[in-house]
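We modelled the chain as a single entity of 147 amino acids. Its sequence is:
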Amino acid sequence: MRNLLVKITCLFVVLLSFSVSNGLPKNGVKTTSLLLNGQKVSSDMFSWVTRGRLSVGLDAGDAVPFYIYLKREGRIVNAEAYAHNHAVQEYEMAEILKFAKDGDQIVVDLAGQLNNSDRKIIVVKQKRFIPDLYMWLGLSKNKNDGC
């Protein structure tokens, strides 16, 4: 009886795993990457970029149309921007950064068939070579003294 139970359990495991493996995609997952002037760059490096042509490419090398917009505190900063309303193949980083502040998010949404598969978010960071002078002198912008 115990031997029969082991055989039935093994049979169920094989049948269940077979049906799941048939449901997986057979052509592989298409992954996208951010490109700056045609070169692949990580999302962390984009935080420090001030100019250049941004594009999105598949691993196969094909360019992908995308929407790009700037978000601040959960709201879109420039909702009438061309690249927010129309898909583009590439976009100049300086155009979107002229509205950006430290901590804003640049959102890159893919257009077309891949629209829900891969959203890229770039956090804008301010370049600081020297810390702010008011911090060195002890003059804080926010004194938090209740006034």
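As a brief sanity check on the tokenised model: The mean pLDDT is 75. Strands lie at 32-36, 39-40, 53-58, 63-64, 66-72, 75-76, 90-92, 105-110, 120-123.
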